[in-house]
Amino acid sequence: MGEILVVGAGPTGLTMAAELARHGAAVRIVDRATAPATTSRALVVQPRTLELFDDLGVVDAALAAGTRADSVNLVFDRERRARIDVSGLLTEPETHTEYPWLFSLSQHETERVLTDHLASLGVGVERGVTLTGLTQDPDGVTALLDGRAVRFDWVVGCDGARSAVRTAIGMPFEGATYAEEFIMADARLDWELPDGDLYVFPSRSGFLAAFAMPGAGRFRIFGNVGAHGSPDYSEPTHEEFQTMLDERLPLPARVVEEYWVSRYRLHRRGVPRYRDGRVFLVGDAAHVHSPAGAQGMNTGIQDAYNLAWKLARACRGPASDSLLDSYHAERHPVGQRLLRTTDRMFSVISGQGAVARFARGHVGPVLARRVLGRESVRRWLIGTFAQLRISYPDSPLNARDGGWRDGPAPGDRAREASLGTGRVYDVLRGTHHTVLLFGEWTGLAARIEETYRGRVVARVVGADETAARVAYGVSGSGGFVIRPDKYIAYRADPLDPEHLLADLAARL
Ligand SMILES: Cc1cc2nc3c(=O)[nH]c(=O)nc-3n(C[C@H](O)[C@H](O)[C@H](O)COP(=O)(O)OP(=O)(O)OC[C@H]3O[C@@H](n4cnc5c(N)ncnc54)[C@H](O)[C@@H]3O)c2cc1C
């Protein structure tokens, strides 16, 4: 069996290596840093990522180390506020989830949880090892690790925004750097607002946000501080944070203490192709954008989740090239959309032009009340940020049989719903494909499980399991093939068993 090299042990690389190992592939993971990072960086773990952590078996460890935020609050002034209750909005069949909150977990804790998980699968991170170059040919990849040539079947670049893998394959990283500078602190605040929520304070002078962290009065605060001709990366001072609060908060607030501070500029860049022969780019190596919306780390983790099961199959035996190409076909549009939306959000929340300042100071409060006053808009927004609405409608892996009016289509996320015992995601948990059969199909289920022993789990959804029937939009007979990354590959409505078996045979 061929070996895969994962370069970089950030959240993306750790997920990638762990998923490859769980799917039975031989993997090595290296990181040039000699020790794990200890800073908090990405803070918000989105509901879709928590679903993924549930699949990996690490969700309890993650939940124990972070804190739940139930709402996002836009605070314009003392009277004018818009509160968006996250849990209450993730209740539609499409976005229903076991984890309906924004979850605040420091990135180093996320990395610790994933590193422990990886170790439990028998893979250790090789630290202090730097990839300095690579070349590929039709049979494999020669990677230079600290200058020493080592041969692999595949290489996955999870080595962040300055990816050496990307440079080695000559892949452009198109985009730009924003002129605006930001300062950020993990701090203890003394103010009247309750702990445990997310606050955004748009004001004429700029943008300021405070995201709850574990611990009394602890928040991540960050905001823009203007554009300087030449970048200034000096450590921000206590006075700068206090001034930012005084200028932009409509209520008294004091920074009691900072635990970690950072000054940075942001980029919007992406690669045109996520795959080049035997080399893949994943996470920040493939796309970087403003953290507005807290999407970056979550997107990288899900890139990895998308690619790992496909690549593991390629290592176990002949997998069609189109299966590997589907990684780019599915995830590149997600990355591109993210670059566009975060860019727009960034322009509004931190732009210093007259229009952006006016929008924040005057139009914002009115617009926010009007727009966010609509429940449908709030539901759409939160479901999108939660990454529960991401779908791959044009995926080459999609197949269908028949037609339907309700419920998910091929390329959509598998929906969560309760069953007679447990829930749909309990059935999906694991590395297998899943077949959900609606109707009297016990014999068919047994035949499928016998044919694809260990590789497919087949579950008949009974007539009385109405929550699942409603979620999947099936009133009579129907069938779904669900991929190991919990996306729908095939839907039949009504179900013809021979067609479903033919789909499975072609797929597996
Ligand atoms: C201040 C800040 C706040 C953020 N907030 C959020 C947030 O709230 N939510 C969110 O989703 N995202 C957020 N992000 C973005 C998030 O941190 C990144 O998207 C995430 O770290 C990307 O993970 P990654 O594993 O792809 O890359 P990285 O975390 O950059 O990891 C890359 C790894 O590769 C290693 N490496 C690099 N080059 C080599 C080499 N040549 N050889 C071997 N190893 C190498 C590095 O040492 C590193 O460990 C934030 C980012 C910052 C800076």
UniProtKB/TrEMBL annotation:
Which keywords has UniProt assigned to this entry?
FAD, Flavoprotein
Cofactor(s) in the UniProt record: FAD
* A Pfam family assignment: FAD_binding_3
Give the matching SUPFAM superfamilies: FAD/NAD(P)-binding domain
Name of this chain's protein: 2-polyprenyl-6-methoxyphenol hydroxylase-like FAD-dependent oxidoreductase
What top-level branch of life does the organism fall under? Bacteria
Q: Which GO terms describe its molecular function?
A: FAD binding; oxidoreductase activity, acting on paired donors, with incorporation or reduction of molecular oxygen, NAD(P)H as one donor, and incorporation of one atom of oxygen
Give start and end of each FAD-binding domain: 3-341
Entry-linked InterPro entries: FAD-bd, FAD/NAD-bd_sf, RIFMO-like
